[in-house]
């Protein structure tokens, strides 16, 4: 019997609990940053922002200020769902004519199966650059849903970055 048939893996995410809640993430230092924000009186959004900022330091290959995304926020007290969008943006001087589509095919290296662009200018070179939206999105989420100043939420990540 192959060894792989005998293996048993326990997969989990490190979580940190405290008197004010629980935070789970891909790294214990990120979970700890969020839990400490809860202990300081922050709300779930404050903890999520601090956790995400710390992930950018301890797992920069998966997270960080150079990217973007979106956040779905559920507010139980008024049964409302809102979305904070913070995607990357193309350069202001760019145009769709900078990315002429190939006559056929898709970009095999792209998981979205988008149409191929001539010379892959959307993937390689100076026209492939986008303006990150992550920090702007965290700021918007903090203003709309947070209770603590952004400077307090980014502090744990800054301290960890200085430690290396």
Automatic annotation (TrEMBL):
SUPFAM superfamilies cross-referenced by the UniProt entry: N-terminal nucleophile aminohydrolases (Ntn hydrolases)
InterPro entries linked: GGT_bact, Ntn_hydrolases_N
Pfam families in the cross-refs: G_glu_transpept
PANTHER family, per database record: GLUTATHIONE HYDROLASE, GLUTATHIONE HYDROLASE PROENZYME
Protein name stated in the entry: Gamma-glutamyltransferase
Lineage, opening ranks: unclassified sequences, metagenomes, ecological metagenomes
């Amino acid at each position: 019997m192959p060894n792989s048939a005998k293996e048993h893996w326990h997969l989990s995410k490190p979580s940190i609990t405290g008197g004010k809640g629980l935070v789970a993430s891909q790294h214990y230092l990120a979970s700890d940053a969020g839990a400490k924000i809860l202990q300081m009186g922050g709300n779930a959004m404050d903890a999520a922002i601090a956790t995400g900022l710390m992930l950018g330091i301890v797992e920069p290959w998966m997270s960080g200020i150079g990217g973007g995304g979106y956040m779905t926020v559920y507010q139980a007290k008024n049964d409302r769902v809102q979305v904070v969008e913070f995607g990357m943006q193309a350069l202001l001087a760019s145009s769709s004519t900078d990315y002429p589509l190939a006559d056929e095919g898709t970009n095999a290296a792209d998981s979205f199966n988008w149409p191929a662009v001539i010379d892959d200018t959307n993937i390689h070179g100076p026209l492939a650059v986008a303006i990150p939206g992550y920090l702007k999105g965290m700021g918007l989420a903090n203003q709309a849903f947070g209770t603590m100043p952004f400077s307090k939420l980014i502090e744990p990540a800054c301290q960890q970055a200085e430690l290396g």
